[in-house]
Amino acid sequence: MERRGAAAGGGVCMCQTLFPAHANHRGELSAGQLLKWMDVTACLAAEKHAGVSCVAVSMDDIQFEEAARVGQIITIKAKVNRAFKTSMEVGIKVTVQDVLTNVEKIVSVAYATYVAKPVGAGKIELEPVKILSTEDHLEHTLAIERRRIRLGYEQVFQNLMQESNKEGDYCDTFEEKDAVSTDLTHVQSIELVQPPHANHHGNTFGGQIMAWMETVASISASRLCRSYPILKSVNTFKFWGPSVVGDRLVFNAIVNNTFQNSVEVGVRVEAYNCEEWIKDQARHINSAFLIFKTVNDKGELLTFPRIKPTTKDGVRRYHGAIARRRIRLARKCMLSAKGDKPSDPWERSNQAYVSYSNIAALTHLAAKPGWEITSTLDDTKIWTHEEGDVLSLKVEMQVKIPSHLAFSLLSDFTFRQQWDKHFVTCEVLQTVNEDEKIYHVTSPPMTGHKPRDFVILVSQRQPCKPSEPYIVAVKSVTLTSMPPSPEYCRSEVLCAGFQIYSGSNSSCTVCYFNQVTSGVMPYLAANLTGSSKSIEDTALECIKFLERKCSRY
Which residues form the START domain (predicted)? Predict the structure, then answer.
């Protein structure tokens, strides 16, 4: 297997002034044109890293936050965040700048997966991305989490569909009076792939296919709203196979479901060469689900009518749209939480995104610049970080124990009572998977208050390479099976956990982080004023516990 890769992660930037030819009837950059530019920029970044031609495999959910207008400047930046042997994640950031006001806004942030196109029969193994900045390190770390979500998406979707079957959602759903038949929204379009539509590999340009899909989906949605729909988001473009110059591409679009102010349109793309066209032997090359909204002249959101599927396949697509929406809402809730405790119950559609949010929050906290050292004592250092009203704590400990063993002991919170006096009890409520557990923890009362309790998710990750840390991330979650009790004051952990770095075969550096809440503040305040050594004492007990346990192995 040949190895390819550039020294740095392959950053590419494209700037473009928007002209009327790029715009729709509203004078805004057309979504299809933007998708083409995003694909070109991402492909160039992938090829800069790989050193060979690359092709798109998929593009994750795309959210369009701002509209870009004629006369403004669009900037698209793309870089390879991480290489996974034969595939790589490319991060794409789109911003728009107003020339007159100089105000810059984010239009979209997306992540695409590309693979190097082999010259012969074998696959090309990619070189790792070289980390050049703190931001590179952050994205490199989180790329592995996003990959976990991609790989697990189909299973989550199937689980939700099975739940829908069990709950009997397929019965008596389509009897609304004024519901519109989905048959009226079906649109078919055929495109002949010509040389201007092909990329430099001779294949149909992926961005062109996405643009054609947006066009046919927009027409389908317009049959419901009787106006011009606006693309709000895309639920994953997946490229199942290539097409080439001379192929006929058949696009079939139909509304799957409506949700008051939005509509989901499914698009399926099939390709035919001349022989396949005569024999009616289609190649399924692409699928995507596009979500549209529509507004009136005042910019107010309009309501879509309810729809009524007329076939068994239509019913399946109807409920599939509901499942995808649940996943989108979970993703939006968890990834925008910024440390807040999620309000939704712990369910299958949430799990991957809560885990991602947990790991991401700790990784972001650890990578923040501006940590200030406040105390040094033997093998322990205490750091603090202030950002606005948020105060965070970091405790760095040098421990004579192999890193993998420290990780094993610190990730099992049932051991925590043996070294942390703030843990009175710790019970496993749910083993989500081999890397995630939910615990119920009780803590002693502070003067004049009831004892506190927590429901926390503990997510653990092993490093993919020696230079990366072991991670144990902690945050509060809500479990309907464990409501607050009058006996305790329910408290929360915003963001906490450990990063464990290997030193030698018999030593490691353990870093504990905590975004300070009201429950932790008294201990930190006492430490900073010198009236208490509670944090240093707990760190010392942690070191003793780890080294004592190590001597028994």
Answer: 368-553
Where on the phi/psi map is residue 262: left (φ > 0), alpha (ψ -120 to 50), or beta?
beta
pLDDT of res. 336: 44
Pairing of strands 436-443, 452-461: antiparallel
What structural domains and CATH numbers belong to the chain?
11-140 (3.10.129.10), 178-338 (3.10.129.10), 341-551 (3.30.530.20)
118 in Cβ contact with 124 (< 8 Å): yes
Residue 44, CB half-sphere, CA atoms under 13 Å: how many?
15
CB-neighbour burial class of residue 474 (10 A; exposed 0-12, middle 13-18, buried 19+): buried
Q: Which residues contact 183 (CB under 8 A, 6 or more apart)?
A: 310
Q: Nearest CA to 196 among 53, 36, 41?
A: 36
What is the distance between the alpha carbons of residues 286 and 282, in angstroms, rounded to a whole number? Answer: 12
* E strand or H helix that includes residue 150: helix 134-166
Structure confidence at residue 176 (pLDDT): 67
* b/e burial code for range 440-450 (CB count within 10 A of at least 16 → b): bbbbeeeeeee
Average pLDDT over residues 424-453: 89
DSSP conformation class of 54? E
- The pLDDT tens digits of the residues spanning 78-127 come to 999 999 988 999 999 999 999 889 999 999 999 999 998 877 667 788 88
pLDDT reading at 69 higher than 90: yes
pLDDT (tens digit per residue) in 378-415: 889 999 998 887 889 999 999 999 999 999 999 999 99
Which uninterrupted H or E stretch holds 33? helix 31-50
Answer whether residue 5 shows pLDDT above 60.
no
Strands 425-433 and 436-443: antiparallel
